[in-house]
Fold each of these.
Amino acid sequence: MRSSSEWIVSPAEAAVAAPRLAVDARELRPGARTGIGRYLLEVLRAASREGWSCVAYGDAGACLDPPLRGVDWSVLDAPWTQWWDQVSLPRALARDSVTVFLSPYYKGPLSTPCPVVLTIHDLFFIGYPGRRRPVYDATMTAMARLYASRAAAIVADSEYSKRSIVTRLGVSAWKVSVIPVALGPEFKPTPPDETLLARYGVTRPYVLYVGNFKPHKNLARLIRAFALLPGALRGRHSLVLAGGDADGRPALTALAATLGVGARVIFPGRVGDEDLAALYSGAAAFVLPSLEEGFGLPALEAMACGAPVVASNRAALPELVAEAGLVFDAEREPELAAALARVLSEGALAADLRHRGLARAALYTPARTSGRVLALLRDVGAARARLGAWGADARQRFGEPR
């Protein structure tokens, strides 16, 4: 494996044609996409628009639908995840003459025929909020440090994430590029669609959350804050918790019932990508109360759809929302309730937040987001030009392409 210093490129090398790009696309699955899935899709869309030659590697459950021009889809078989990562993938990279590989995770193949760029969205897998797992955390930290040391470059979604990566993984700051996550073109103000909302059991007006139900999302405090709203406001609005998972829902349902707001808290389940813009657009307010966020993509999507945003003051959220939303102390339920009450009862404030949010979201252009990822990948891929003899070494280690 080449050391990361061997992938540093000169300005002249950066001017070469687009490389043959490969991505780990296992997060591209049918239906509602994860944040990582959205990140991958926007990078591939950008590469397709610019005429790149790409290959996306998935597993049996993944797919790229609809297909993208210039993007080949390849399913790699493997008996378990580590084999896929460290055996099947490197062989495929050699077979397909890949010049640079993008991983959407903190990990990647340790020995490859091309440079690897990691995308570390967050470090929640180490020292997860509220959990003490000293052996697990020490092991995962050591592995993350190894992957980071082998990477040619690292993408972080925010300055907050970059600081965490540099501090906790011992990575040089120059190796980490802060590039925000791209917005999909579908996220824009959408006219109300009562039929669509009814399909998810939602009626307006409503307060919206979109995401998973893991503890760091702080949803128990959101439900308690909703229960603290003045009776008239609480009676007119519902709290819609979209997304989530089967494991997290029962405790939240029980909490809502205990607080007397069980009938006002709606769980529509996972919402398809084609319906999310309408759900965001129809919200009286969007809330992201997280204790930890590496970026906070749902808040950006909500702003792009014209929803007033209320976000916690933790992690990357103040950096993302800036002056375009109301920010509250993530551990103070009365403060969240007060912020919600203002947005739901003060029409002028809500209108101002909608305007500010749209303006803020407009800054996250393809050129500033996925376009910068492509520029970084092009720079890293250009370093192959001075490693011509290495191709023979790769064929010997990984097998001749078939």
Amino acid sequence: MTEHHTAVVIGAGQAGLSMSWHLTQRGVDHVVLERDTVAHEWIDGRWDNFTLVTPNWQCVLPGYAYDGDDPDGFMTRDLVYDFVRRYADSFDAPVREHVAVDSLRQRLGGGYHLETSAGAMTADQVVVAVGGYHLPSIPRLAERISPEVAQIHSSEYRNGAALPDGSVLVVGTGQSGAQIAEDLHLEGRQVHLVAGSAPRVARFYRGRDCVAWLQDMGVYDVSIADHAGGLAKRESTNHYVTGRDGGRDIDLRAFALEGMRLYGRLTDVDATGILRIAPTLEQSLDAADAVADGIKNDIDAYIDAAGIDAPTEPRYTPVWRPDVEPTELNLAAAGITSVVWAVGFRRDYRWVKVGVFDGEGHPAHVRGVTGAEGLCFLGLPWQNTWGSGRFAAVARDAEYLAEHLASISSREPAGV
């Protein structure tokens, strides 16, 4: 007989476990399926010196919160991994590790059928909690780079010592790219960095972490329905900053003064392996600084309106500008022996055989609820608010879905 559960949660990261906690509290029969191990992405997909970029006090999961001695600090990779695993243990989450879901389909008459590596299973309700970052993205132009140059995705990077001797090219300045470039720079490697369009934010301003100011201002509570950016925010890039060594700004201009080579957007690799670069570096740096300055303006306005006594500090002044923007990069001539591609991920929901996706393959949902009754998503970037895809608000999103699923279960059958 096919195994059946009221609910199946797919994914045992912080999102799936948060969902499991709420289902457990409601006494809902459920199981959490994890293709690998609990919280494995925190170890398998992060570099050795990784830290959170949000303070530890923001790590609040349902029924569980950071209780260490450094609430204003930033947990390292290993500490985050331990935090999530201890959370699973705290309520004996019904996780089955090493069970991959190969396909998810609707059943005639209602509910869902799952084909898994451990056999078939059915459920009345399913919550897909596998996040929004699945397949490492590396552009096809990388295939024209000499095979003598090692190429890895940022999710594979661990430390500089694991790369061949020589200079390193990092492509992308989102959170991972900027922090990996810093990591290599601090290890003494010659870094060449292709800057993208990611914004930046100051770590501290007027006596506090900027995250603390933004939290008090309610920025993390603004729903995507009310946000001026609308649904496009779901595709936006997060600001680069770091929690390393207690937290600090990441200033690419300062890195340039210290010897890091910066470039504009990569546009092509020609037949001889020469990288073609668009002259967008200064524009990218100025745009990132403008975002950081705008956040400071918002904080200033909040402080003034609330009458808060906070120290003042001078505004950032650019410490470096490119004299000339390079339009090409010869990897061999520059001594570059490895490339780290930090250009993001692609979503992969091909195994979800239910018609709930938009034209680009993204789940079509409102706060995680899809048009297919009983099928929800959790842990997506900007699922409802800025904090949805991370620790800040996943608890709130999970509670909302638990209430929604409970409302479905409580309906009387048609005709009764």
Amino acid sequence: MAGLEGRTTAPPEPRLASTVMLVRDGSDCPVEVFMLRRVPTMEFAPSMWVFPGGGVDARDATPDLPWAGPSPSAWAERLGTDEVVAQELVIAAVREVFEECGVLLAGPDASTVVGDVSGEQWQAERAALLSKEQSFAELLVRRSLVLRSDLLTLRDHWLTPEFEPKRYDTYFFAALMPDGQVADDATTEADIAVWVTPKVLLAQVDSGKARMFPPTIVNVEHVADATSAAAYVATRAAVVRVMPEAVRNEAGEVVLRAHLADAQG
């Protein structure tokens, strides 16, 4: 294990990934966040509570995708990467949240967001994305829509520890739940997909009734501290990439310690 016994082989290369914290004002708490509990048969993160998201797909590399909001160059500066990767990460974020919970961060123009996308035709669009029969760019062009990159805010950046067999370089985005849309539980990757009260879910993790990875816990804690959904999404702070590493504490127990890899503006 890296950080303890060392490793004899190079750590696996991390896959770029995007995840989105959809938030809305809550009835019993200031802010609710939409989360999924992955089915127990999943190879990666079985039974874990996660935000909608996933790895960058080859078809996310679409430079001519209809786009509104901060440009790929502006996102590159914010994400600490180049324009090509920045665009792929933003596209992956918007694509994944549509595939997994039916929320589409796009509109006819730069100032509007599409309304209800829960009908059968939209379900067919999601299925075609999941089966890779179409790219997200093709969907937008056919529907005369533009991706609204301004609806996303970068919140966090985590790198899977080097000792893990499957690694992700994950960017955490936040977005307000669009008016007129409904986040659903149609994904086959989760057995539960619901709006959660952050402090309730955190208490379930503490009691052992629920499971989350450390990056998810940290970000749910941030949502729990927010005063409103709009304030949470509007907050922009310096983001530092974090990579946990396994170490032994004074009692000899193996624990994860956060290592700050680098900072982004």
